Amino acid sequence: MRRFESGLLWLNRFLCAALLVAACALVFANVVLRYGFGVSLAWAEEASRYMMIWLAFLAAGLALREGAHIAVDLLPEALPEPAARWLRALILAAIAGFLGLLLVLGINYADFAMMQRSPVLRLSMGLVYLAIPVGTALMLLHLALMAPRFVLRPRDEAAQVRAAEMGSL
């Protein structure tokens, strides 16, 4: 399982890095061509926008693993450890429920937009909107892999001090 998880992380990071490099290179090349040679790639702006959309959804699972999404952890830190674990499990269940709903709606939205074409590239917009269910499925997978560590994680010393101070108020 550990090997699968490290492979998933490597692939996810590689795809994000590749999309970021490709989008930046495309925008840079288009700026150089436009201002240096008076020629512009009409499709560059649209392609880089779609790459950034895919990048955002693919990177969301990595951000979830790192705790980089906005979170309020005041209540779990103030509770005794057994109650904090139950609350973290409840939070995970709520996140999983939201992501499950987003996955279903994302699939429906991508399917709905399959016949619509982008203005310049004439690309199916459903392929662009597939970033939603694919990124959401990746987030669910990352959530499942990190769930035991999140729920059972021991508090660090600073969190224990904060919890004790809140309990004495």
Automatic annotation (TrEMBL):
Domain of life: Bacteria
Short name of one Pfam family: DctQ
Protein name as catalogued: TRAP transporter small permease protein
Subcellular location per the Swiss-Prot or TrEMBL entry: Cell inner membrane
Known function: Part of the tripartite ATP-independent periplasmic (TRAP) transport system.
InterPro entries from the UniProt entry: DctQ, TRAP_DctQ
UniProt membrane topology term: Multi-pass membrane protein
PANTHER family membership: 2,3-DIKETO-L-GULONATE TRAP TRANSPORTER SMALL PERMEASE PROTEIN YIAM
Primary location: membrane
Quaternary data: The complex comprises the extracytoplasmic solute receptor protein and the two transmembrane proteins.
Natural source organism: Falsiroseomonas selenitidurans
Keyword Disulfide bond recorded: no
Keywords (A to Z) from UniProt: Cell inner membrane, Cell membrane, Membrane, Transmembrane, Transmembrane helix, Transport
Family: Belongs to the TRAP transporter small permease family.
Membrane-spanning parts: 53-75, 87-107, 127-145
Domain Tripartite ATP-independent periplasmic transporters DctQ component span(s) in chain numbering: 24-146
